[in-house]
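FAQ: What does the model actually see?

It sees only this:
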Amino acid sequence: MDKSPNFNISENETAFLIDIAAPGLKKEDFQINLKKDTLSVWAEVKRDEVAKDFTRKEFDYSSFARSFNLPDTADGDKIIAEYKDGILNINIGKKDNLKLQHKEIVVS
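And it is asked to produce this:
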């Protein structure tokens, strides 16, 4: 990858969702780290060529790094990552005590 991959961030009642488009990688290529309120995602791949019979070749090396600042409502103990069909999906759960802060009250 020559540049950082595209990503989407969404939110539902229980979690924040980050989807990163990173086709051609394996799940072992990713490293995800949480430090305080910053989630860092990076991948580094070096492809070795078997044929050494070239006049000119540029190394096939790709990497990217992205960092995301998590809101106070994110629960660092509830982070799940899955890589499927070229998309890295990161699910960041919300803190339990904050889920109940928004509730619609029906008047009877």
